[in-house]
Task: structure prediction
Amino acid sequence: MSSRTCPDWPELTEIAPDLQFKHYTVAEARLPAEALVDLGDFALGAVALCADLDKNVFYAVHTDPQVAEALRNTHWYEVREWSSTGPGANA
Result:
């Protein structure tokens, strides 16, 4: 477990056992262009995102509300959506 690992990992493992959630800055996450446009002048170096970058899934509880809203307008999923109606529903 790294220092970036989300402290809520036990709960997240219950919801989506195949995902690995870590904390990132917006710049590190390399978010879709449409999300960056929605963020405007948001501090890209701020730690603001808890996500599995490989699966494009974020955890809203540990994600800045502005970042979460921007991601909802893209192909990204919030973890509960991913596990109930998204690609993780069949996992």
